[in-house]
Protein 1
Amino acid sequence: MSEKIPSRGAPVARRRLPGLSIEHLWPLAVLAGVFVLVSTNPIRPHDFWWHLEAGQEIVASGRIPSVDAFSSTMAGTPYNNYASFWLMEVAYHFLYAAGGPALVLFFHSLLVTAAYALLLRLCWRASRSWRIAAASTLFAAALGFDNWNVRPQALAFTAGVVLLSAIYGYRARPRRWLLALPPVALLIWANGHGSFVIGLLMLGVWLVDEMLAVVQKRFVQQGGWHLTRVWPPALTLLASAVACLVNPRGIDTLSYVTHLSGNPVIRGLVPEWAPPSFAERSGALFLVTLLLCAVVLAISPRRPSRFQLLTYVAFGALALSTSRGVIWFGIVMAPVLAEHLEALFSRRASTRPGRPNSRVRQAQNTLLIAVLLGGVVLALPWFKHLLPLPARKAGLISRETPIAATQVLLREHPPGSIFNELSFGSYLIWAAQPDYPVFVDTRLELYPLAVWRDYLEISAGGEGWEAKLDRYGVKTLMLSPTAQPGLLAAVRDSPGWHLLYEDAAAALFVRGDAQE
C-alpha cells in the first residue's frame, strides 16, 4: 500500500502540546515552598559547626578523629562517632571553603528539595494526579519541617526516598537494576548519617510483606511454596546490610545507633528524641495525622494492601517511640495516602466538568509559575537579603549564634576554662579551638550523666553553682539570656564576676581574679 502524501496546498495537522493548567501549579508550588523555607532559614548554631570543624580535621590530617579534642570535660575520651558523619563533614568542609555559608545553605536546600521532589514523583505514580501528589507531599513536608536544619541528616532524606522509590518501582514492574539502588543508597547513607537503619527498616517491611504473601498462598489458598517473590527483597536487604558495613567502623557503626536510641540523657534532654506529645506543636501535628491516616485507610474505597498496613504500623510505632521518626512516617506514608486519596476523590473529580484551558488562563498560569520561580531565585542565599524576611531569618547565620561574643573572647583572651550554654558549644568548637575547649556541646552522647547533671544545676543558678564551676576550673562564662536566665541573674548578683560583653545572643563574664 502506497503511503498517502498530503497535497502541497493541504494543511498539515500539528500535534499540540498540552497547555499549562492549574494542575501543574500544585506540585511546583509545593516544591518551591519547600526550597524557599529551607533556603531562607539561616544556619543555626546547634550542630553544623562541630561537623564543619571535624571535616576540616579529617581533610587536614587524612584520618577520622577517634578521641575528643574539643571539650575540657571529656578531653582524650574515645569518641568514634565522627565516622558516622565523615562523608557529610568532608563535604561541608569543601563547600564552606569554596563558598562559605551561602554555598553550604544552597547545597542543603538542594538536598532537602530533591528528596521531596522524588517523593512527589512517587506520589504521582501512585495517584496519577498532580494535585493529590502535591497534597500528599505537603503532608510529608509538614511532618518534616522541624528536621530541616543544616546538618548531615539532610543526606538521609534523599537517600531514603531513592530507596523507597526503588521498592515501589520494583513492586510495580520488576526490573533488576532497581534492586541495585538500595545498596548504593545505603552505602552513601551509612557514611553520611547514622539513621541508615531506617533504610533497612523499609526493606524489612517489604520482605515481611512478601513472606506473609507466601504463607497466605500456602496455608490459606492451599497453594505451593512460591518463594520466588521472596528472593528479591531478601537479597536486596542482605546486599544493603553488607553495604552499610562498608564504612570506617564496620559493624561497630551500629553502636552509634543503639547508644543514641537507648541513652537516657539524650531522650531526657533533647525533645526530638523523646516520644511525641500534644504538649508540642510538632508532636500534636503527628498524633493528629496518625489518626487521620488511619481514617483515610479505613474509609477508602480501595482496600489497603498488606504492605501499606505494615508500613503504617512499623513507621507509626517508630514515630511514637521517638520524635526523630515523625519525618520518616510522613515520607513513607505519602505515597500510601496519595493512592487512597485518589480512590476517595476520583469519582467526584470524574463528574466535575472541566474548564476550558483558554489562552487567558494559560497566561495566568504562566504568570503564576514565573512568580513561583522568581520567589525561588530570591530565596537563594545570595539574594535572600532582598526579601522582607523577619529578623530571625535574616542573614545566613542565625542571630542566636554567639559570633560577636566569640570574637570578643578571642580578642580579650581571658584565662581559664569556659562554661558555655549547650547550643553555643558547636560554634565554639569551630571558632575558638584550641584556645577554649567547650564545657558541653551537642555531641550529647559524649558526656556522662554526671557532667549533664552539673551542667543543668549550674545553668539553673541554684545553690552551689560557683563551687561547681570552681571544681571544673571555670573562669569564663558564655551564657544565653534566653536559655539560662537563672544563672545569668545569679552571676549579675555575684561580686566575683565581671561583664566583658553582652548582646541579644550571648553574655560573656569573667571571674574577677582572672582579669589581667
Protein 2
Amino acid sequence: MKAKAIVWGCTFALTSMDGVWAAEPLTVPEVTVIAKRLDEARNALNPDIGASTYVMDADSINDLPLGASTDFNKLLFQMPGAAQNSLGQVHIRGEHANLQYRINGILLPEGISGFGNAVDGRIIDHMALITGTLPAQYGYRTAGIVDIHTRSGAFEDGGAMEMRGGSTTTFQPSFNYSGHEGAWNYFVTGNFLSSEHGIEPPTSKTNPLHDGTDQGKGFGYFSYIVNPFNRIDVVMGSSVSRFEIPNNPGQSSSYQVDGYGTIDSAKLKESQVEQSHYATVAWQRDQGEYSFQLAPYVRWSQTHFHPDVVGDLQYNGVAADIMRADVATGLQADGSWKIHEAHIVRAGLVFQHDTAQANNTSNVFSGAFDANGTMQQTATTSYVVTDNATKEGILAGVYVQDEWHLSDKLTLNYGLRFDQVDAYIAENQLSPRVGLVYQATPATTLHAGYARTFTPPPIELVAPNSLLKFQGSTAQSAVQVDDQVRSERSHSFDIGASQQIGDHVQVGLDSYAKLVKNLLDEGQFGSALVFTPINYQEGRVYGLEGTISYSDKGTSAYANIALSRAMGKKIVSSQFALGQDELNYISNNWVHLDHDQLLTMSAGIAHSFDELTRVSLDGILGSGLRKGFANTDHMPLYTQLDASVTHHVPLDAEGLDLRLSVLNLLDVPYQINDGTGISTAAAHWGPRRSVFLSMTRRF
C-alpha cells in the first residue's frame, strides 16, 4: 500500500509493509512528472489568444548553420516579419525595437547593452515570438514578446563541451551541464568568444580593421520542488563584452589638434565595453483551479564608449567618453482562476524601479557655424565639457482578463490594462484588449484582435542633453530644441489564419495595422554605439506575413515572407539630433523610418542522410533599409546564404559531434546601411564568407 505525505516542505512516498510505514523521498520519475505539470501550469498563465505565435525549439536552433552558437538576435531572423539591421538590431513588424523578453514567463528588464548580447542560445529548450494584438497581461514593449523557456535538469542529465573556431581568428569554447538530485534540478552553461569580427564593419573587406571582440556569458537555472503544488525557480545570467569600433580607412580629417599631426583613419582606437547581469526568483503554486507565480527580479547593465581622443577630435570635432548604466528592480505577479469550463480569469501586476545614469565627458574645440550652416573650428586647443545626469523612474501596470469559451470552437479573450510611468514625465493609459480565436476545423484556425497599447520610452536611454553647455563649441547642435521624449500610444489590429495540411505541412497568413501617436524610434546620432529615442507625432505601420513549414522523419523546412511599411510624420522630441532641413521636411511629409524594409524573406531546410549525418541550408533576403535625405531612398536588395554539415562520430556511447559551418556561402558582399538617412551615423556591411569548425563532446 502506498500514499503521499508532505513533511517540512519535502515530499515523501509512504510505503506500508506488513503494517509498518516507511517514508522515502519521491523518486526521480515522480519529480519529473511534477516538474512537467508545473511547467504546463506556468505556460497557462501566459495565453496568446488572438495573437500570432511562432515557436522555435532546441532542435530547430541546432539545425541553423552555427547551431546554438548563433547570436541570439539572429535567431529571430528565422521568424516571419523580422528584418535585420546592424549593431545587433532586429526589427519585428516594422518597429525599431519594442520587444519584450521573458524567461520562463518572467519579465526581463531592458538593458543598456541590448539583450541579444546577454543571452546564449544554449539555454533555450524552446522559445516563442508572440506578435499581433497581445492579451492584456503584456505591456510596455508590444511589437513582440520573446518568451524563452530554459532547459532544465528535470528532463535531461549530463552535459557537453564544445570548441568552435575558424575565420577571423574566431575561438569559442563553451560548456553546459544539467541534472537533478531529489527535488532539486539545475542547468548551467557558459561560453567565451574571441574574434577579429565583432561589429559589422564600414567596408566590405574580408578582414575588417580594428574589429576585435571578447565576450563572456554565463547562465544558471535552479529549481526546487517544495511539494506537488509549489516550486521555487532561480534564474541568473551574466554577460561582459568588449568591442573594438571598426575603422574606415582613407577618410579625410576636418579639424586640427594643436601639437598633433593627422592620424590615419585606419589606426583609430575607439572601443566599447558592455555589461549585463540579471537574476529572478519565482515562487509558483498550482492547485488545479488556482495558479499563480510571484517573481522579484533585478538587472544591472552598463555601456561605456571609449573614444580615441585625438583621432575623434580630428575627424569629428568632438571626442566623447559616454557611459550609460541602469539598475532595474521589479516585482511581477500573475494568477489564474478557472471559474468553470467556460471562463478562466487572469489578473496580475508588475512594478519596476529604475535608476539610470548618463555620463558624458567630451573633448571639444571652440567653434561656430558659418553662413552655410557648416561648423568651423576657431581654436586648435580642446577643452572638456562634462554633462552627467542621474534619473529615477517607476513603471507600474495592472491587468485583468477573461478567457471565455463561447463554444467548443470559439474562444474570446478580453481584458483591461492600466499602465503608469513616472520618469522624465508622468503618463498613464487604460488599454482595452480583445482577441478572438475560431477553430473552424481540426486543421483550420482563424484569429482576430484589437489592442490599445502604451509604450514608455526606455528610461535607460533617455539622457537629458544640456545644450547650453556645448554652445560655442564644435559639438554645438545646429538645432537648439530638445523636447522631452513621450510614451507611444497606438491602436493595433490583427487578423490571421493557420492551416494544417496533412500530417507534415503547416501554413499561416497574418495581416496587421497600427495607428500611432508619438511613435517611438531610436537612432545612433554620434560615433558611440548608444541609441537615443525620438518621437514622431504620428505613425502608421502595416503589413502582411506568410509562413509555411514542413517536417517529416529526417527532413524539416520552413519559409517566411513579409511585406511591411513603417511611416512617421513630424519629429516632436530630441530635435537637436537632426538637421533643420530634415526636420522641416518631416514636419510636412510622411517619411519612411530608417529600418523600414518593404520585403523580408527567410527560408531553410535540413535533412538527415542517415542517423549520423545532417546538412542544413538557411538564407535571408531583404529589399533594403532606408537611406538618404529624410530616408527618401533605400539600400539595394541583399541576400545571404548559410550552410552546415554535422556528423556524429560514434567513438563510444556519447561519441563526438563535428560541425562544418559556412556563412555567406556565395561570398556576396552586401551593405546593410550606408550611414545616411535619419538616425544612422555609420555605414555597415554584412559578413563575407566565413568558415567555422566545431567539435562537441557530450558526457
